[in-house]
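Incident log, support desk, overnight shift.

02:14 A customer reports that sequence design results differ from what the structure should imply. Their input is reproduced verbatim below. On-call engineer (initials T.W.) acknowledged and began investigating.
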């Protein structure tokens, strides 16, 4: 089953739905969570539903909007999900290569044959970047942005997961459902990173497919920030501001991961050994300092490139983000 949030995307959903219809693997259902889309978007959706019974829609009446609200709606409210072995996320403006599902399913079947049918899976893939007009901007996203996550524990220290290319099996899906059905489930938790973290906690196979399986649309603009080349007071003020933003971002990630871990620790499906690791990571994120340094080194954390890894390491291990753990004082994070 393909899970797709939809909000007034009449410019792009035609090409997106056509890319799903062209999949060489035909045994799919596209489930849409409609988030009060405009009439132009709904007309396109109704036309596709009329010509292809595999396209279905559910309304998002949860009161929660955006990616979080719509994916949560799809995960906890989709009827008949028990009949599906695999699930894939899809944004409402991307384009899939025709062989995307077939590649993922074949890989999943191979992994389960080799490792056992009860092996959870959560795959991600390389992408090409296109702009709002569909023009190719980058043919190899993984190399440019060092996207591949080689260490599952990295996902608790940095947000590098793109939900639009995730492919998971029923074990991961229903673990997510069990946690997300809580009416108090925090809206701040990033659904894509949460999916990957949950899969890692379940001991899933987290294979990365280096092949480009989709076109990821980024809406570039012609407006760019003015570079600062002169080393003067303005330069140092900008550096200080950016450092503060790095610390804020890391504090948000830490709080997000701590909330996610709190839910995972309640799952019976997660082994005692994994829960012990999760508790260690949570303590490191909350306390920082020496504890964080030990855990960081123990799990060989890497945030994608040397600069980002160094920034995150310094911010956490020096305790620079600890004061932002106060949710009442810093609710905006």
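02:41 Re-run completed on a clean worker. Output:
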């Amino acid at each position: 089953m393909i899970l797709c949030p939809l909000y007034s995307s009449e410019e792009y959903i035609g090409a997106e739905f056509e890319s799903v219809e062209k999949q060489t693997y035909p045994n799919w259902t596209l489930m849409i969570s409609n988030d009060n889309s405009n009439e132009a978007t709904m007309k396109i959706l109704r036309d596709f539903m009329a010509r292809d019974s595999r396209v279905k829609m559910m309304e998002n009446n949860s009161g929660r909007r955006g990616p979080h609200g719509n994916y949560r709606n799809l995960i906890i409210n989709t009827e008949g999900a028990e009949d599906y072995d695999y699930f894939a996320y899809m944004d409402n403006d991307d384009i899939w290569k025709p062989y995307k599902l077939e590649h993922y399913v074949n890989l999943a079947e191979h992994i389960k044959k080799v490792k056992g049918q009860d092996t959870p899976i959560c795959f991600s893939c390389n992408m090409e970047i296109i702009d709002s007009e569909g023009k190719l901007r980058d043919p190899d996203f993984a190399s440019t942005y060092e996207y591949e996550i080689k260490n599952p524990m990295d996902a608790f220290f940095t947000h590098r997961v793109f939900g639009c290319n995730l492919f998971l099996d029923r074990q991961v899906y229903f673990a997510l459902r069990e946690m997300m059905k809580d009416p108090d489930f925090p809206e701040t938790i990033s659904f894509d990173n949460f999916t990957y973290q949950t899969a890692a906690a379940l001991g899933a196979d987290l294979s990365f497919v280096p092949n480009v399986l989709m076109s990821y649309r980024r809406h570039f603009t012609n407006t760019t920030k003015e570079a600062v080349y002169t080393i003067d007071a303005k330069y140092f003020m900008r550096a200080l501001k950016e450092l503060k933003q790095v610390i804020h971002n890391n504090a948000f990630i830490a709080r997000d991961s701590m909330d996610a871990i709190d839910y995972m620790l309640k799952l019976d499906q997660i082994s005692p050994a994994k829960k012990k690791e999760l508790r260690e990571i949570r303590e490191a994120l909350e306390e920082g300092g020496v504890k964080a340094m030990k855990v960081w080194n123990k799990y060989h954390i890497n945030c994608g490139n040397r600069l980002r890894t160094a920034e995150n390491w310094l911010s956490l291990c020096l305790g620079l983000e600890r004061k932002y753990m106060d949710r009442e004082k810093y609710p905006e994070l």
